[in-house]
Every structure is written in structure tokens, then in C-alpha cells.
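Input (structure):
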């Protein structure tokens, strides 16, 4: 057993001594978690850009009214050009530009031009309607005052400034009758509700863990080929070390690498970003079974190819392909039904499904038993195949 642990230690040391891994193992996964969190995060509200004079009370009132609307967050911009660029790039759903003197124009009951910037999509159209309603509410007292001025002029009453009547209308605004609309939403967007309850970095953490654990395992499979090419395996077998011990140590080394990558992401994302991993027992079971499958897959890749460059290329292709298909790049719920069914052939699908149950729906290990059974099946099948192919390669 001492020899097995020695082989495991050597495999892990080789991973840590490779300087290229300093980026791909340690830094790159965290960068992607941060990137996904910055793009989506916990705030799934629609972002509406606003350009307005910060000292204008009427403009501030309008912005507050828009910000109070459910599902809308206003974002301040300094210029129309900056806002237009953000809307054009799709970073902001739409924008409103309030002219200088907006409040003065309203108080004087004078015409005022408000610019709406949007994209040719349904979101912009909806926002334009909401902005128009908020503006109409602000203009309503002035419109009432103008109507009264016209009425007084028609009956020959002494003229009164519309601005004065507007102030009167504002004073009695709270006493005016109102119509309240009670809205009922039929049908529930379950995915949006699940995402709304997540922390900013919860979405990307688990998916990137599975992506990089599998990818790091497969791309490191070239070390198994180097072990054979450099005669290390031959020298080990020439000593009183059984093929089973070498096989166990080599496989254990692959598992140590997979677990190292996974545990690193869990610890750093939890400490630095406060990521929620759900039920600890369930998350541990998912990660462990996935790591076993990733390690066994690395054994297969490291056994069937002749050179480490071939193994690295195949590892990148298989690792990224399986991650993309299995929902580690896009939530599986957004896939067409046919693609989602095909994705079941990857361990990533079952691992991501399990973490979705644990994190999004507050499930426990009991709730993910089907996913654990599938991951266990992948692990057993890949361990059997990897052991067979690697043993043949070692003694060949």
C-alpha cells in the first residue's frame, strides 16, 4: 500500500509542478465563475438606463417610480452617447434620456421631449409602454391644468396661469379617484423562479466545477503515456511491485488530481464568493462520484493514445464537448427536448441535474438518488474500462 500512495503522490506532484496548470487549474475556473456571476448574477431584473439631471426633483421622482416597478432596475448614465452604446451592445435593455430643465418644463406646463432608446425586441416594446405610463402620470396634473385654462377661457372667466392650476391639481391629487388594476399571472416560469433565489455566483460554480474537473483529468492523461514512454512503468514492474499495485496507484493518482481540482473550486468559491453548494452530504456524493468517473475516463484516454499530444488534444475535445452537451455551459433546461435527451449520455448531465436539485430546489441526498445512481453507473463502467485498457498498456 505504501507503493500505491507513493505513485499517487508522484502523480499529484507532477500536476502541481507544471507551470501551465497554475492558470488552467487555479485561476481560469475562478475567472469563469466570476464572469458568469457578473453576466447573470442574482439580480435577474431588466436594466433600464437613464440620463437625467441629478438635481432635478421631477426627474428623480420619475426614476424612483420606474425603479419601483417590479422586475426593473434603473442604471444612471452620464450621456446619451454612452447609453446608446450600451443599449446597442445589448448590455442595457433600453434607455430613457430626460432633457435638461425637465422639471422646469413640467412645472411651467410647457412641451418637453423625452428620448427613448430601445432595440427591436419585445423587451424594449414593453419598457417603452411602462416608461410612457410613468411619464403620463407625471404629465397628468399639467394636462388637467391646461384643460381648466381652456374651459375658463371658453366661459369668459378671468384667465389663470396653467402653472398655478397645476399646483392646485397636485395638491388635491391624493383625493382624486383612482383605478387599481389587480393582475393575475397564469402559468409560472419555474426556471426564472429557481434562478431568482440563487446567489450571484451560484449559477456558474457547480457547472464550472464539473467542466474543469473532467477537463483537467483528461488533459492530464498524457502523463500516463509519458510514464510508459520514459520507461517508468517498466522500471516499476521490474521491482517487486505487482501490476495491480501500479494500476491502483496510477488510477489513484488520477482520482487525486480530479478531487484536488474539485475541492479547490469548492473551497475558494465558498470562501471568496459565498457560493451555496446545497446539502453537504448530497454535494459531496455528487462530486466524489463525478471525480471517480473523470479519473477513470482519464485512464482510458491515457491508455488508448500513443503520444501525450494526442491524449491532450483528445482530452480537450472530449472534455469541452461533454461539458457543452451536459449543461456545464448553458443550463440544460434551455436545451431543446431532443438535445436534452441526448445529453443524458454524459456524466455532466446527471451531475448538473443533481446540483440543480440541491442548490435551486433545496433538495437533499434522498432527492438526488436517481442522479447518484446514474453517476455511479458511469463510474463503475469507466473504472472497469479504464482498468482494462491501462493494464494492457502497462504490460504491453
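Output (sequence):
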Amino acid at each position: 500500500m505504501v507503493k500505491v500512495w507513493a505513485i499517487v503522490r508522484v502523480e499529484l506532484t507532477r500536476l502541481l509542478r507544471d507551470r501551465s496548470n497554475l492558470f488552467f487549474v487555479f485561476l481560469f475556473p475562478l475567472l469563469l465563475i466570476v464572469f458568469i456571476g457578473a453576466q447573470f448574477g442574482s439580480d435577474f431584473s431588466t436594466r433600464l438606463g437613464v440620463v437625467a439631471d441629478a438635481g432635478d426633483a421631477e426627474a428623480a421622482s420619475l426614476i424612483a417610480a420606474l425603479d419601483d416597478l417590479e422586475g426593473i432596475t434603473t442604471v444612471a448614465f452620464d450621456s446619451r452617447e454612452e447609453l446608446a452604446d450600451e443599449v446597442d451592445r445589448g448590455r442595457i435593455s433600453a434607455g430613457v434620456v430626460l432633457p435638461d430643465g425637465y422639471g422646469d418644463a413640467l412645472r411651467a406646463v410647457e412641451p418637453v421631449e423625452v428620448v427613448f432608446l430601445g432595440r427591436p425586441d419585445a423587451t424594449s416594446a414593453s419598457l417603452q409602454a411602462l416608461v410612457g405610463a410613468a411619464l403620463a402620470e407625471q404629465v397628468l396634473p399639467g394636462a388637467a391644468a391646461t384643460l381648466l385654462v381652456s374651459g375658463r377661457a371658453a366661459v369668459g372667466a378671468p384667465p389663470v396661469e396653467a402653472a398655478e392650476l397645476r399646483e392646485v391639481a397636485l395638491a388635491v391629487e391624493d383625493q382624486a379617484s383612482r383605478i387599481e388594476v389587480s393582475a393575475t399571472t397564469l402559468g409560472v416560469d419555474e426556471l426564472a423562479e429557481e434562478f431568482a433565489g440563487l446567489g450571484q455566483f451560484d449559477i456558474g460554480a457547480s457547472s464550472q466545477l464539473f467542466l474543469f474537473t473532467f477537463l483537467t483529468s483528461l488533459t492530464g492523461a498524457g502523463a500516463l503515456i509519458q510514464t510508459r514512454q520514459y520507461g517508468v512503468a517498466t522500471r516499476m514492474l521490474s521491482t517487486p511491485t505487482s501490476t495491480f499495485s501500479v494500476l491502483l496507484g496510477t488510477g489513484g493518482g488520477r482520482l487525486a488530481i480530479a478531487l484536488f481540482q474539485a475541492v479547490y473550486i469548492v473551497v475558494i468559491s465558498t470562501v471568496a464568493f459565498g457560493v451555496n453548494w446545497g446539502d453537504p452530504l448530497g454535494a459531496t456524493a455528487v462530486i466524489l462520484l463525478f471525480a471517480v468517473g473523470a479519473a477513470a475516463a482519464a485512464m482510458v484516454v491515457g491508455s488508448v493514445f500513443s503520444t501525450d499530444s494526442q491524449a491532450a488534444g483528445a482530452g480537450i475535445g472530449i472534455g469541452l464537448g461533454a461539458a457543452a452537451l451536459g449543461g456545464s455551459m448553458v443550463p440544460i433546461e434551455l436545451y431543446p427536448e431532443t438535445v436534452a435527451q441526448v445529453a443524458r449520455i454524459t456524466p455532466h448531465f446527471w451531475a448538473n441535474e443533481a446540483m440543480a436539485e440541491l442548490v435551486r430546489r433545496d433538495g437533499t441526498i434522498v432527492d438526488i438518488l436517481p442522479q447518484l445512481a446514474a453517476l455511479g453507473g458511469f463510474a463503475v463502467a469507466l473504472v472497469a474500462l479504464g482498468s482494462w485498457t491501462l493494464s494492457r498498456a502497462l504490460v504491453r
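Notes: The two ends are 24 Å apart (CA to CA). The mean pLDDT is 80.
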